[in-house]
Amino acid sequence: MRSETTASGALPGDGLIRVGAVLFIIGAIATLVTVAPLFLGTEPFPTAVYLVAMLMGVGFLVAAAGVLRSIAAQRRQARETAPSA
User: Fold this and answer.
1) Model pTM?
2) What are the record keywords, sorted (predicted)?
C-alpha cells in the first residue's frame, strides 16, 4: 500500500524521520563519550562535546515531527479516497 501513495514511494515526513534518526545517533554517541571520563577517571571533555550530546533530544523531536507529518498525510489521503456517504 505504501507504494501506492506517491510515485516515488516516499511519504511526506520520511526525510525528517531519517534526519532525526541520524541526529539522534550522533547525540547518543556523544552522550556515551561525555560519560566515559566518569568511569575512566580522566579529564572531562570540553563544553562543545556536551553541546553535541544535546543533538539526541533534537533528533528525537525532528523524527517525531516527521512521524506526525506522515500521519497527517496518510489521514488526508484516506479522507480523499474514502467514499462520501
Assistant:
1) 0.77
2) Membrane, Transmembrane, Transmembrane helix
